[in-house]
Design goal:
With 268 residues, the chain is mainly α. 78% of the residues lie in helices and 0% in strands.
Length: 268
């Protein structure tokens, strides 16, 4: 019961933070609208992959062009989810370097929670999330694969695990700012790795697939959900999709706790 109560408490806090952040964004409505338009522009750029895949009738093994389109749709949805948390991830190193983290550590809630959720962006999240789902529905329908409710439910679960893995994947580098000053290069490398999800993992050589599954599990973020929607379940991929978030959450917890121990207050 205590766990459920704690979850409810933090859920209410998250909703409150999102509401406050939305009010803050709407304070400058032109910027809010401009942010949405910019994300739609990025979406149109991603959509060029869809047109190329359909026009060239690209196939990858058992995957036809519309299977690939569905995979691209899942990538766009999870890009939106990543962009939702991006302002918090981007601003964290500055909090460490300036000492403003002090103000968050004295609050009567989890410092990690408030650091990761205090800044969000609906203007970057909504266009990618909504339009990404439209791409998924279009690709799924045109692929000719049957709609199976259990696949939809399991696919949504894999989007959830992919969200957790995405958060861990991109939050570990900012936490490293407890030890180093500049993490720009690391963020650039991760952004490049993230773009591997533009296409399904069977587009890449087998050796690269193994790296993307077991060493740097970037392929585990989008592929399990897309494969499941399309009734192309892969046992190996499913196991890794469940195990990777657990491993990376543990790693994130270790790095966070060690970083907090190392942190020197601005007043010290």
């Amino acid at each position: 019961m205590k766990v459920i109560g704690r979850i409810k408490k933090y859920w209410k806090l998250l909703c409150l933070m999102i509401r406050v952040q939305l009010m803050s964004e709407l304070e400058y409505r032109i910027n809010f609208i401009a942010g949405i338009l910019v994300e739609i522009g990025y979406f149109l750029a991603k959509l060029s992959y869809v047109f190329v895949v359909i026009q060239t009738k690209l196939t990858l093994g058992d995957f036809g062009p519309y299977h690939i389109v569905t995979c691209i749709g899942v990538y766009i949805v999870l890009t939106g989810i990543y962009m939702f948390f991006w302002p918090a991830l981007k601003s964290f190193p500055e909090k460490v370097q300036s000492g403003s983290l002090d103000l968050l550590m004295v609050k009567p809630i989890s410092t990690f929670f408030i650091v990761s959720c205090s800044k969000t962006s609906l203007s970057m999240f909504l266009p990618n999330f909504i339009l990404g789902w439209l791409v998924i529905i279009y690709g799924w329908y045109k692929s000719g694969e049957a709609f199976i409710l259990s696949n939809l439910i399991l696919g949504l679960f894999y989007i959830f695990t992919g969200t957790i893995l995405t958060f861990c994947f991109f939050f570990i580098p900012p936490i490293i700012s407890f030890w180093v000053i500049r993490i720009d290069k690391m963020n650039s490398v991760l952004a490049s790795l993230w773009d591997f999800n533009n296409m399904p993992m069977n587009n890449y050589p087998e050796w690269l697939q193994k790296i993307g599954l077991y060493i740097i599990p970037v392929f585990v973020i989008t592929n399990p959900a897309a494969f499941t929607f399309l009734n192309h379940r892969n046992i190996e991929l499913s196991v890794v999709a469940v195990a990777s978030p657990v491993v990376f959450c543990s790693l994130l917890s270790i790095v966070w706790n060690q970083g907090i121990k190392r942190y020197h207050s601005a007043t010290s």
